[in-house]
TrEMBL record, chain A:
Its cofactor is FAD. Belongs to the FAD-binding oxidoreductase/transferase type 4 family. This is Glycolate oxidase subunit GlcD. The lineage of its organism: Bacteria, Bacillati, Bacillota, Bacilli, Bacillales. It comes from the Bacteria.
Amino acid sequence: MITQELKDQLVSIVGTRFYLDSNNERYAYSYDATPLYQSMPDAVIVPGTTEEVAQILKLANEYRIPIIPRGSGTNLAGGTVPVEGGIVLHLSRFNQIYEIDRENFTATLGPGVVTSELHQAVEAQGLFYPPDPGSMHISTMGGNMAQCAGGMRGLKYGVTKDYIMGLEYVLPSGEILRCGGKNVKDVAGYDMTRLMVGSEGTLGIITEMTVKLLPLPETKRTLIAYYSNLLDAARTVEKTITSKIIPATMEFMDQATMRVVDDFVKLGLPLEMKSMLLIEQDGTEQEVDRDIEQIAEIARAQGAKIVEVAQTPQEGERLMVARRSALAALSRLRPTTILEDATVPRSKLAEIVEEIERIADKYQLQMCTFGHAGDGNLHPTCMTDERDTEEIKRVEQAFEEIFLAAIRMGGTITGEHGVGMAKMDYLGLKVGEAGLDLMKRLKAAFDPNGIMNPGKMFANSDRRRVVVKQ
Amino acid sequence: MNNLLKPNQATPVCDTDKMELVSKGSLSKFDMNEILNCMHCGFCLPACPTYRQMGMEFASPRGRIALMKGVAKEELAVDAEFEHHMNLCLGCRACETACPAGVPYGSLVETAREMVEDQKRDSAKPSVMKTVVFDKLFKNPQRFKQLGTALWAAQSVGLQTLADKTGLIKVLPRPMAEMQKAVDKIASPIARKKREPVMKSGQANALKIGFFSGCIMDVMFFETNQATASLLQKAGCDVLFVQEQVCCGALHAHAGEKDGAIELAKRNIEAFEQAEVDFIVNNAGGCGSALKEYHHWFHDQPEWQQRAMNFVAKMRDANELLAELPPLTFSKRIEAKVTYQDSCHLAHGQGVRNQPRQLIQRIPGVEYIEMNDADSCCGSAGIYNITNYEMSMDILDDKMKQVEQTKAHYIVTTNPGCLLQMKNGIIRAGLQGKMEAMHVMDLLARAL
Ligand SMILES: Cc1cc2nc3c(=O)[nH]c(=O)nc-3n(C[C@H](O)[C@H](O)[C@H](O)COP(=O)(O)OP(=O)(O)OC[C@H]3O[C@@H](n4cnc5c(N)ncnc54)[C@H](O)[C@@H]3O)c2cc1C
Ligand code: SF4
Ligand code: SF4
């Protein structure tokens, strides 16, 4: 509860315009992109400076009010749902790029900068920030950092954590701290930067970040291959990499996804095929041509029935349309679309896809699988209807089996979407009881009163399922 | 306030039972399937001009849909705050173009506004929108011609008199004062009376076009309508000004006055049936998009729905039809840089994007320059620049920065509202004399 007295103090920090607590205003911050989760905050604050953030946190800490940091609310783990009420801290005003340092290959920016705006700004100078989550035109860099977002270029270039060099962050105590910086080498103490990355807003608020940049690759080319079974596609992925070629992108779609996509965009895909791979390579023209030709050969040798190589960038774009429209096509089928991101070692790709098919069958659900084949990061996606309580229960059980299967194959419950609320009951499966315990103690060191994004990451009861009220 | 989702609930899940109940029942006018189609992905956020201005979730399409869902689930009331948030939306439908899930946002927001109006009727308290649009300004669409005469008379004697005579200045001081500066000299009643009811192409087997002249368009931009008709005539069509037509009803529909809108639609359908034309053509994106959606207005009247479908099948925007007909031959050159501002209801509503650009580029001498974010709303949005003046001007000023970058001599658009807004924008940006705002049809006619 925010008392009138506390409200007055908060308003005096940010002004009335940026303190919002009417019914409609709060309601609009009661959800994020995760289906099925919703809960009302007590207020929404849109701070403008680090100093304001520090003052707000200090007060909230004193009054034990939960703080839920929020970027654009596109996460898929229920990470910004104010499950215990409190204050949603919307960081959209921290949207400036302060510096692009061409000598050190870094950019320094506020956490509210939208990912693709950073792309544009650095690419205009011939530089490159590789992480490209599917949500990049909407998601913020702060959200990417706090979730350690991945993307299509993950295979060759890594994910957000590989690019965060330094941070400014605020603790619940109101202390403003800095870690890392522009140094390529820096081993002074624990690596706090790495710890903050992927912390899902449970440790502190990031108010500034310095990211690593690369030179922008000269060119890129695309290839598409269709297979009459899953194994050949999976083997193409493996063989490509063992031949020491690391493509920028290796995307996979199963037959169910292909059917839905083709029905929606009418691309004339060969629907009798069981799976398809979309592969993109970037680099110098010479390297790219050589790699793409070699990959085409590998694909054919592994039994690809059809291999198409784009001759121009425009044609490459056309080929990528199928993958880009996957989510759109799937989401039109039924009212509710639930997308997961179980991840396995590359070598288990075919096995997990088959397992997902079997599980979908067992629970009589409509599921399609697509995703980042090169990273073993798949998106089994279930089309359902949130009003059908009985079906949602089956969805739950099916996903639980998929998580367990992934773990069994040496994989993980989430490759890039994070734990949040959606997967907190499964975190123990991956990190073990002792691991959970250490993580909780770490959190207590940062946030002794538990005000930072409470009810996320760690299940606070022995409740196993979170989605459906029993 | 009825049961809002409470924080501190042990299990923060959506209340599926309640939703089922609402979607079955008749508690709200919303189609729950359409609302649930929104998966909260946020793809629409960067496309939304009001979100870009304010950066707050409730000023975004996703936020507004969530508020509607709240109303549908009876977790939010249809109250003044809800009305405010629904009215802050431009209705530009850029979010529909951006949405991967195909959420019909335009019809959802119309339903929301309809519910606001219903609520007001019940409580006998008129909404802002209704006061401004229907009581003060447009009381009756038929009065447009009279208003036109009043405006013409006032322009002839001076703006001050206009302000006094019409009393408009008292209701809407700043927006109207600014708009007046932007309004061109309008055609005299005599000129308007002299219009030929039919313009023949003189060709055998000519296409017969029923011209939908539009109420605002025909008063404020009479010459543009004449120019459009001449272009069609030159392209080999017989153009008929159908006399019995009335206002398209778009403003009514957007403001939640659905019953009034449906009445107008029926009269138009009848008028054009009797005229027996091959195509119905108009040149205002906003009206066109409503005219092409008439069949959605008659879900519970099958006979009218069929008649509406026949009407819709014949509807074309003038750009659309001219781009299909054999190319016009131009006799004059226009040595100028030209850029194009999409009309939201033409681009996002009707998917007509290339045709006006093609037509402009066919004019000899023209150097066409594409503007950044050309399909992002200019802030005019029907009467938005009157009801939400400040936001509208913020959006316009941002737009003018993009316009200025093109260094164009002509900023061309295809809707009366946008045209007025751009004219006003030129004044606000201090570009008078350097740049002129113009309707596509006028530019084309100038080169004939
Ligand atoms: C269509 C779609 C496609 C997607 N594709 C991908 C993909 O390819 N790869 C991928 O990894 N993810 C993907 N996502 C998930 C999501 O976009 C990412 O998790 C993204 O990083 C979230 O960014 P955001 O700005 O929306 O953050 P939010 O959702 O607002 O917040 C995410 C988390 O970060 C915390 N947080 C935000 N800002 C701060 C801050 N300044 N300080 C501390 N904590 C903070 C929040 O509390 C929350 O826990 C996708 C989502 C959608 C809807
Ligand atoms: S883009 Fe469509 S589905 Fe996504 S949030 Fe917006 S309206 Fe909803
Ligand atoms: S119609 Fe335009 S202003 Fe309204 S929500 Fe959609 S994009 Fe935003």
